[in-house]
Amino acid sequence: MEDIKGSDGLGDTELRLGLPGTSTATRSAKRALPEGDEESHDELRRTSAAKAQVVGWPPIRSYRKNSFPARKVEAEAEAAAGLYVKVSMDGVPYLRKIDLSVYKGYKELREGLNNMFECFSLGELSRREGGSGSEYAITYEDKDGDLMLVGDVPWEMFISSCKRLRIMKGSEARGLESRQH
Amino acid sequence: MTYFPEEVVEHIVDFLGSHRDRNAVSTVCKAWYQVERLSRRNVFVGNCYAIRPERVMARFPWMKSLGVKGKPHFADFNLVPYDWGGFAQPWIEAAARGCPGLEELRLKRMVVTDDDLELLARSFPSFKSLVLVSCEGFSTDGLAAIATYCRGLRELDLQENEVEDHGRQWLSCFPDSCTSLVSLNFACLKGEINTNALERLVARCPDLRSLKLNRAISVESLNRILARAPHLVDLGTGSMMVNHHTEAYHRLINAFLGCKSLRSLSGFWDASSCCLQAVYPVCVNLTALNLSYAPAIQGDDLIKLICLCFKLQKLWVLDCIGDKGLAAVASTCKDLQELRVFPSDIYGAGTTAVTEEGLVAISSGCSKLNSLLYFCYQMTNTALVTVAKNCPHFTRFRLCILDPGKPDPVTDQPLDEGFGAIVRSCKNLRRLSLSGLLTDKVFLYIGMHAEHLEMLSIAFAGDSDKGMVYVLNGCKNLRKLEIRDCPFGDDALLKDVTKYETMRSLWMSSCDVTLGGCRALAAKMPSLNVEIINESDEADEFQENLSDLHKVEKLYVYRTVARGRTDAPDFVWIL
């Protein structure tokens, strides 16, 4: 399991038995990792794939493994793929989709939604700063299926629990707004 | 021997607490055996297959407290198939028949069904305490039975069990007359709880000192509970998801201000760093803190919290605490005795959250440290030698370097010398887990120096049979030896077969032992159960058809007075 390539890059000139391009593993075979190309072996060992292949390693109770770490993996996978959620706007016949992961915070999100629905000339979307004359409120459906007002929770928490967005209009929106303040 | 009245012997024996002392007393002579067995109140069975339950009940009819362990330790890591065994049923049935005065039951790594729990609940009128650790096979229906029928229940402690959720009503089953609860831990339950019922239960149990909530409990509910139970000593907070600009958060601050007796905290599942200020008032008195399920608490906010906890004796954290955080622990927590650092990123890209530096810092600051579980990506011999020098009081030392077989990154050497230093310095070491690149030499050191070692866990280590033989020869007090993925074969297994009679159990998986070797062991030692766990396709073949040269995937050997077992599934062969 030694690192065959020295850090000074002189590995290639090292004298050893065997054909060029192969290696001499001086240790007895460890069943953990796949036998294979020794060059990529080290790399493989250091990647998560290798760790995942070994049954029962690392020695962590399944109870703990099944707790947050798995969720973190899901979240990371989602982040890599983009967090696309549907956006509906009351009165608009079709929906849009946006990638939440490209926004850094609520301000950018509002701007993005403004741009997206501008063409419907329905005025600016409501702001937290309490603009009057705002006819719309941005809401979202969370993991539990509840309708929530956007802006209450920290951004990270929001993007991990938001399943879809809905831009509500009129009296419904005002009801939510006043509750917010 | 001169006549010694039984009452006097009994009186003397009453002073003996430990099982070992009582076991020793019982072997002196028949009279003493009788006195001891009738006066023993606490019985511990380390391996449920070492003896039949009926014999235990017959020997100790006045038993008040029973502890039984089932599956081998490596079952925690999915190395033991699901239906291998470890059933609680025969134990509960036997106790119901033979020891109806039973008050406490503690089960670990066993299969417990709802029927078992119902039988338990109905059979023991004085039942006071149920502790289930790493068990499975039951649902909230079983808990409902416990709540309904155990009058005078003081303790229900569920630790890291797999519990099927059949609804939230189980908690409502505690009758209004139940006012005796001292400890309630349902942190491992995944489902919703009837919070009204919980709050009323808490309100009517004035002796409640330990309460561990599950993740489904919101901060709002926590606030109400803390208002009713400010005398709690040990709290599992539940979700703790709260935004620090809300009224709920302010109520939380006040709630913790009122908890003057709080000494132990855990939970924090969804807590974010910014809400930690709520617990600052209790930090100065905390002796135990478990943040190992709180990934969002890290960085400077975590350090700020730690720096207030100067009375801490036990700390469980995630490795995102970093070396810097561990340095803060080292300078603050001078009374620290137990530290566990869990990995937060096991599927990730190998971020170096804690390294050998963090461990060295801890060892220089916390000289009372005696129990360690440390997951990291790298370790050096120099660091281990320093740790050994700084902390000679280790009784439990478990180091897990996440890359199997990884050498010292600075010298590229195996970690033999580092672990050697640990066993030389820590004369009271009872439990040791090894990792990293290791040769036979480390086992030579262990055999030579680890006189009091009772449990040793080895993975991806050693060069030859000599390694295992060094351990078996040297460690006189060894009780449990578990080995995976090491080049130890039949020669090592058969070198000293009588050794296994002095131990509780031996586990070997993915090693080089063959069926022939196992058969030889079973033939020589009828006092052992030699179990082969064979999950491959060949399991369909009768074992007679397999040659002696067949490599055994999983071997579990344990001493027993109950030859064989009747509940073994098809893939378990008892030779």
Write the layout of secondary structure elements.
The complex is a heterodimer of chains A (181) and B (575).
Chain A: H1 38-46, H2 48-53, H3 62-65, H4 68-81, E1 84-89, E2 96-99, H5 106-117, E3 136-141, E4 147-149, H6 155-161, E5 164-169, H7 170-180
Chain B: H1 6-14, H2 19-26, H3 30-39, E1 42-45, H4 53-59, E2 65-69, H5 89-98, E3 104-108, H6 114-123, E4 129-133, E5 136-139, H7 140-149, E6 155-159, E7 162-164, E8 183-185, H8 195-203, E9 210-213, H9 219-228, E10 234-237, H10 247-257, E11 264-266, H11 280-283, E12 288-290, H12 299-306, E13 314-318, H13 322-332, E14 338-342, H14 356-365, E15 371-376, H15 381-390, E16 396-401, H16 416-425, E17 431-433, H17 440-449, E18 455-459, H18 465-474, E19 480-484, H19 490-494, E20 505-509, H20 515-524, E21 528-533, E22 554-559, E23 572-574
Subunit structure (chain B): Part of a SCF (SKP1-cullin-F-box) protein ligase complex. May interact with auxin and auxin-responsive proteins.
Main location (chain B): nucleus
Keywords (chain B): Auxin signaling pathway, Nucleus, Ubl conjugation pathway
Explain this structure:
The complex is a heterodimer of chains A (181) and B (575). Chain A is an alpha+beta fold and 181 residues long. Chain A has helices spanning 38-46, 48-53, 62-65, 68-81, 106-117, 155-161, 170-180; strands spanning 84-89, 96-99, 136-141, 147-149, 164-169. Chain A has a domain at 84-126 and 135-174: Roll (Ubiquitin-like (UB roll)), CATH 3.10.20.90. Helix content of chain A is 35%, strand content 14%. Chain A starts with 37 loop residues before the first helix and ends with a helix. With 575 residues, chain B is an alpha/beta fold. Chain B has a domain at 498-574. Helices cover 32% and strands 18% of the residues of chain B. Chain B contains 20 helices and 23 strands. In chain B, the strands form two sheets. Chain B has a 21-stranded mixed β-sheet, covered by helices on one side. In chain B, strand 15 (371-376), helix 15 (381-390) and strand 16 (396-401) form a beta-alpha-beta unit. Chain B is globular, with a radius of gyration of 25 Å. The two termini of chain B are 44 Å apart. The mean pLDDT of chain B is 93. Classes of the chains: A alpha+beta (181), B alpha/beta (575).
